[in-house]
Amino acid sequence: MTEIKTEEGKVVKVKKKPKKPPKSMPWFMPFVCDGCGDCVKACPQGGIELLGLDRKVPKAWLIAPEYCIGCAKCAEACQSSAVQMTAYVEQALERYKDRTKRPFQ
Ligand code: SF4
Ligand code: SF4
Q1: Domain edges within the chain
Q2: What is the largest distance, in Å, between two alpha-carbon atoms of the chain?
Q3: What's the predicted TM-score (pTM) here?
Q4: Exposed, middle or buried by CB within 10 Å (0-12, 13-18, 19+), for 93?
Q5: CB of 104 within 8 A of CB of 89?
Q6: Ligand 2: which atom is nearest the Cα of residue 58?
């Protein structure tokens, strides 16, 4: 387990980092997300977080993309279709590493 501090100051425990990026990664769509948190609970790596907890509708985001193993459990758990798996892993990694792309900037 590794501890990561989110932008909101919350400490999140994530599991072991994979040796190489997965073949697919989740693409979160904040405009569809209703903030239910099901994807957060479903992620075995602990890498998803709800951002904007002080807002009416928080949004899910992959805060630890380098820990994603591409299992798709987040996409399967999402009843709102706000998470789709994509094979464009490099673009997804860049997106999640860019803090300006996060919801509630
Ligand atoms: S694909 Fe799996 S490891 Fe990656 S964020 Fe979704 S649930 Fe977590
Ligand atoms: S399961 Fe879907 S709707 Fe719920 S927080 Fe995650 S992305 Fe948003």
Answers
A1: 2-101
A2: 38
A3: 0.93
A4: middle
A5: no
A6: 5
Q: Is 82 in the pocket of ligand 2 (CB under 6 A)?
A: yes
Question: Could you tell which of 40, 74, 76, 84 is best to mutate to test the pocket of ligand 1, judged by most ligand atoms within 8 Å of the CB?
Answer: 74
Separation of alpha carbons 17 and 2, rounded Å = 9
Quick check: CB of 72 below 6 Å from ligand 1?
Answer: yes
Report the alpha-carbon distance of residue 54 to residue 82 in Å, rounded. Answer: 20
| C-alpha 67 – ligand 1 centre gap (Å) | 8
pLDDT tens-digit series, residues 33-55: 999 999 999 999 999 999 999 99
Nearest CA to ligand 2 atom 6: 39
Indicate whether 90 pLDDT > 80: yes
Topology of 2-101 in CATH?
Answer: Alpha-Beta Plaits (3.30.70)
